[in-house]
């Protein structure tokens, strides 16, 4: 079954990720998806701390405005449910993104954190060519996806080894291990740069 790289750029609400931008590239490069979602509610409905955090993200990190986007937020779970049916494995970067995506997709789709597999910082992946979305902003999810895929491709071509991925995620789930021809990566800690 197919595998893909997936990245999200988010705001925060009540200590939870609120997905603003979602991008996906299949590992074979044949499929690219990209969405920027409309605001789920008015900015002033956020508590003051979340308003400050999200304003910081807009000014200094992903630079996406709270009100940017054209896809209704109500479509987000439907899109991710469908992606979860279409892909056996989604590769992303960061434990929180991994957890956020895994909450949306079915248990049949495994979300893998590339940070635990020695994937360098996204800044260090800038050596790879990438696309960017129409918003032309920093930390674009589409750019990140393409670079993650390019990195996996490059290491795969080096013949570094293979990564065994367990698709078991809970004690009551039948254990299954699949061998995927990607490198064995080391742990790398992810830090939320905005300090929350
Ligand atoms: Zn973008």
Number of strands: 7
Q: Are there runs of 5+ residues with pLDDT below 50, and where?
A: 160-196
Determine the number of helices (DSSP H or I, runs of at least 4 residues): 4
Radius of gyration: 17 Å
Mean of pLDDT = 83
> What class, by secondary structure content?
alpha/beta
Provide the succession of SSEs. EEEHHEHEHEE
Percent range for β-strand residues: 15-25%
Q: Mind summarizing the main beta sheet?
A: 5 strands, mixed
The molecules bound to the chains, other than polymers, are: zinc ion
CA-based shape: globular
- Side by side, the strands of the main sheet go 3-2-1-4-5
Give me some keywords for this one.
196 residues; alpha/beta; five-stranded mixed β-sheet; globular; disordered C terminus; binds zinc ion
Commentary on this structure:
The chain has 196 residues and is of the alpha/beta class. Helix content is 27%, strand content 23%. It has a five-stranded mixed beta sheet with strand order 3-2-1-4-5. Strand 2 and strand 3 form a beta hairpin. The radius of gyration is 17 Å and the shape is globular. The site of zinc ion (ZN) has 7 residues, from helix 4.
Helices and strands, with pairings:
Blueprint (H helix, E strand, L loop, with lengths): L1 E12 L2 E11 L5 E5 L11 H13 L15 H11 E6 L2 H10 L5 E4 L27 H18 L4 E4 L10 E4 L16
Parallel strand pairs: 1-4, 4-5
Antiparallel strand pairs: 1-2, 2-3, 6-7
The structure holds zinc ion.
The site of zinc ion has 7 residues, from α4.
């Amino acid at each position: 079954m197919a595998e893909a790289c997936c990245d999200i750029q988010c705001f925060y609400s009540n200590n939870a990720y609120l997905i603003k931008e979602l991008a996906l590239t299949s590992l074979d490069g044949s499929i690219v998806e990209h969405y920027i979602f409309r605001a789920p509610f008015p900015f002033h409905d956020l508590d003051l701390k979340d308003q400050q955090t999200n304003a910081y993200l807009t000014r200094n990190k992903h630079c996406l405005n709270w009100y940017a986007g054209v896809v209704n937020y109500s479509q987000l779970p439907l899109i991710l449910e469908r992606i979860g049916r279409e892909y056996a494995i989604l590769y992303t970067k960061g434990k929180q993104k991994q957890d956020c995506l895994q909450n949306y997709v079915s248990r049949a789709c495994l979300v893998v954190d590339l940070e635990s597999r020695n994937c360098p910082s996204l800044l260090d992946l800038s050596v790879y060519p990438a696309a960017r979305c129409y918003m032309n902003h920093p930390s674009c999810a589409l750019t990140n996806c393409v670079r993650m895929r390019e990195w996996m491709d490059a290491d795969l071509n080096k013949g570094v080894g293979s990564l065994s991925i367990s698709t078991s995620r809970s004690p009551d789930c039948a254990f299954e291990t699949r061998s995927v021809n990607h490198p064995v990566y080391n742990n790398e800690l992810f830090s939320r740069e905005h300090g929350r």
